[in-house]
Design goal:
- The chain has about 325 residues and is of the alpha/beta class.
- It has 2 domains: about 10-180 and about 225-335, 3-Layer(aba) Sandwich (Rossmann fold); about 185-220, no CATH class.
- The protein is built from 11 helices and 11 strands.
- The protein has a 9-stranded mixed beta sheet.
- Helix 3 (about 70-90) packs parallel to helix 4 (about 115-125) and helix 8 packs across helix 9 (about 300-305).
- The chain binds S-adenosylmethionine.
- S-adenosylmethionine (SAM) binds near residues 58, 269, 294, 295 and 299.
């Protein structure tokens, strides 16, 4: 397989591909502890070369040990210690995108602050030089009710139905272009573009809308920082950005069909495909390098391949190799090549 595509190919090709669990479509998947691998000599080749790190790390569990909340503290320390390691891998205009769910205190109807403390510690790490560029929310109305005890049994909490997505970078102006991830126009905007008539003037919000503000067709509207995975009201349009498949629950896509056929249980905490595609399109160009240090079923490598980006994936468990490979048999990829 030729993993050479134009940008910074020479450095990337020095990765220890002979150690990879597999290589596919301009990328490779490695098994091991992310921090250990990424600080090893073998991975020096990609220091300062990664345009985007996108990942959903293991979530904090907050399991209480008999002598205090050691798991919680250990999680925070571990998470924060990743900041300089990941930052060092990024190009100067690169981005780091982390998806993480809410955590709850073990046995209590109380939300944990662990993920927020982890983010604060991560972003403020003195050796990492990172800042929060923008926070996104990924809202999934069909999420199963959780935490089940408090939501469905005691009925004292609302369903926890979103994940946080934090976009970080080493400078205030990381590479980004929102015109690459437009949402389809609403029906009313399409009508407006067709009929070329609307009420100009001052709005209650004090915004002044000129006679021509809305008459130019930009091909879609600008993405929001809230992804609503499906409509709460089925009659209302959900206008997610025009990237490859935003629907993760679509249980009949190629990956799910093949997992079912082969009797493989899909990874329980997969990142929504559309989320990976959105940030890859938004923050990188063709040929750029995308890394997922907690790759699991390799949603990131698959999305990167579809978008023509090179990729590196790492996971501690070899149990996900088989299912992640399934993704690369998707006929969609042969069409894109
Ligand atoms: C939330 S899942 C990621 C799922 C993935 N985004 C997907 O779409 O399938 C987190 C992954 O991190 C892996 N993991 C946990 N600790 C790790 C470590 N120290 N180094 C590398 N991977 C690790 C787990 O095996 C798990 O697959």
């Amino acid at each position: 397989m030729n993993i050479q595509i134009e940008n910074n190919a020479n450095r990337i090709d020095k990765l220890p591909y002979q150690l990879a669990a597999y290589k596919r479509n301009y990328g490779a998947y490695f098994i091991g502890d992310a921090a250990k691998l990424l600080t090893s000599k073998d991975f020096d080749a990609i220091k300062g070369q990664v345009n985007l790190i996108i990942t959903s790390p293991p979530y904090p569990l907050n399991e209480k040990k008999s002598y205090g909340n050691l798991a919680g503290d250990a999680y925070r320390e571990w998470f924060i210690s990743l900041a300089p390691i990941l930052s060092e891998l990024l190009t100067e205009d690169g981005s780091l995108v982390i998806e993480i769910g809410n955590a709850w205190e073990s046995g209590r109807p109380v939300q944990s602050l662990l993920h927020l403390e982890s983010l604060l510690g991560f972003t403020k790490h003195k050796d990492a030089g990172l800042r929060l560029i923008q926070q996104f929310v990924c809202y999934n109305p069909s999420r199963l009710p959780s935490p089940a005890q408090w939501v469905t049994v005691n009925r004292i909490r609302a369903v926890d139905s979103f994940t946080h997505v934090w976009w970080l970078a080493k400078q205030d102006f990381p590479k980004a272009d929102n015109s690459k991830v437009l949402r389809p126009y609403s029906k009313s905007m399409k009508n407006l573009l067709k009929n070329r008539r609307y009420n100009a003037g001052k709005r209650p919000s004090e915004h002044v809308i000129s006679e021509t503000s809305f008459l130019k067709d930009h091909g879609g509207s600008i993405a929001h920082n809230l992804f609503e995975m499906e409509a709460l009201d089925p009659l209302r349009e959900v206008r997610l950005p025009n990237v490859f498949s935003f629907a993760n629950s679509a249980s009949n896509d190629f990956f799910h069909r093949e997992c079912k056929r082969l009797g493989i249980t899909p990874h329980p905490a997969r990142m929504p495909l559309g989320l990976a595609s959105f940030f890859i399109e938004f923050l990188t160009d063709k040929g750029d390098l995308v890394l997922d240090p907690f790759a699991g079923s390799n949603t990131t490598g698959y999305s990167a391949s579809i978008a023509g980006r090179r990729w590196v994936g790492i996971d501690a468990q070899d149990a996900y190799v088989e299912q992640s490979l399934i993704r690369f048999n998707d006929p969609v990829l042969s069409v894109m090549e």
